[in-house]
Amino acid sequence: MTQFENISCPVCASSDYALIQRTKDFRLKISDTVFSIVRCNKCEFVFLNPRPSKAESMNFYSSDFHKQDNTLFYKIIEPFFRLSQESIGKTFKKYKKSGSLLDIGCGNGSFIMFMQKFGYDVRGVELNPEAEKFASNLLKDRIFYKELKDCDFPEKTFDIITMMQSLEHVYDLNEILSEIRRVLKDDGILFISVPNAAFFESRLFGPYYYNLEAPRHLYFFTKESIKSLMLKNDFLVDKFFRNSLLESVSTPASLYHSLWSFLNDRKLLTNDILKGLTFFPLVIVRFFLRLFFIFDDQNLKVLCSKV
Question: Could you tell me the pTM of the whole model?
Fold first, then answer.
């Protein structure tokens, strides 16, 4: 049986919180456990509570979680992801034309492989040891499969530190941000990308939203809450980056998965053939629906600096 732990608010340490919704692992379906999402009554930070113990957290990741997606659909939309990574690389060049880059939660290393092409001296940190099976041999000795604090990087080592869809997975938020501050140069930049809890699909589908992904996602960020978290840890949020038009429409499957999680859970429709037939029609619906919410970013992209 999974062991759970109750926590205080990571931002303000308050134990006064209120339940806002219950959800399940609708994305990977590893567990039928019902998870609670709460909002701090003091600072309004939203987080999973109680949550699986850190020792058992990897039980909620599939063995191929970091495998490269080779489906036909992914191959069609892959150029959009490449454009997104290229955009990030060009952004970094405006602040740091060269130097050392560390990606925390680097998965199979695809992002740092791309950043290497931009001329950065890259390193990665990844807690899931299964990810090593899917990493390129070109990254051998550049990815450390351990906690950041256990890597023993010297103080003020990195010019750029990134957390691409990984901060929401971290158990010890304040601890890792403290270590990031230690190993980041004084004029270095911290770039974070996290799911936006205020995105229109999150508001529309609630506990069935595809990117909610409990219990792997432990926190659910908005612009205000990430600013509060960073300030507590002596970082300033210098800028939120807008998603490009291509980026905004390049993740169309989230509406499809969210809708079918709702239909299946409510036993309204459970036909797998019908589910398959609705994929491309719903992708098209989502594409046009997304245009109405073009200023509503699915992910928050945040540039931070040391105070």
Answer: 0.91
